[in-house]
Amino acid sequence: MQLAASLLLVNGGVKMTIFRDKVTSGIIKGMDASTLRQQVTANNLANLNTPGFQRSDVSFEKQLQEARERIDSPLARTDERHFPQMPDRDIEPEIKKDTSTIRRIDGNNVDLEREMLNMVSNQLRYNSYTQKLNTRFDNWRFVINEGRR
Fold first, then answer.
1. Residue ranges of the domains in the chain?
2. Out of 33, 78, 109, 122, which could bridge 60 as a Cys pair, Cβ 3.0 to 4.6 Å?
């Protein structure tokens, strides 16, 4: 499920996209990664008792952090509380098989407690992304409504 957060305005043949800046795009990518992670975790749980099944996980936040560290920017962060610059290239969530652990004799490495913890933490992450996106839209709503006065 991809979230759509862009509005295309056509003004004299010129297309403008609003609500699609780097921060909003990053939030939406995070929501998409969380949605995919929830589906992958549900699949892991559905195959809890399938012999030979190898669990999967979604890699996104680590890729995002690595991309942030590679940014060569003329801007300097003078404080750790400052937001780092967002990477220019698109980062997509990846599904990766976990072949490093085998938990049972039948070859299945799905751990019920681990998957349930992943679901809870992923839900909290998704809620955080939702709150951030709502705040951005609230700011736009304020600008639009106050601009009419």
1. 7-71+87-132
2. 33
Whether 33 contacts 60, CB under 8 Å? yes
Taking each continuous run of H as one helix and of E as one strand, the counts in the chain are 3, 4
Between 61-70 and 22-46, two packed helices, what is the crossing angle to 10 degrees? Answer: 150
Q: Which residues contact 46 (CB under 8 A, 6 or more apart)?
A: none
Tens-digit pLDDT profile for residues 38-91: 999 999 999 999 999 999 999 888 887 777 676 655 566 677 776 665 555 578
Neighbouring-strand partners of residue 95: 58
Distance, in Å, from the CA atom of 130 to the CA atom of 136, rounded to the nearest integer, reads 10
Q: State both tokens at 54.
A: 């190898």
Mean pLDDT of 87-102: 79
Token pair belonging to 4: 């759509």
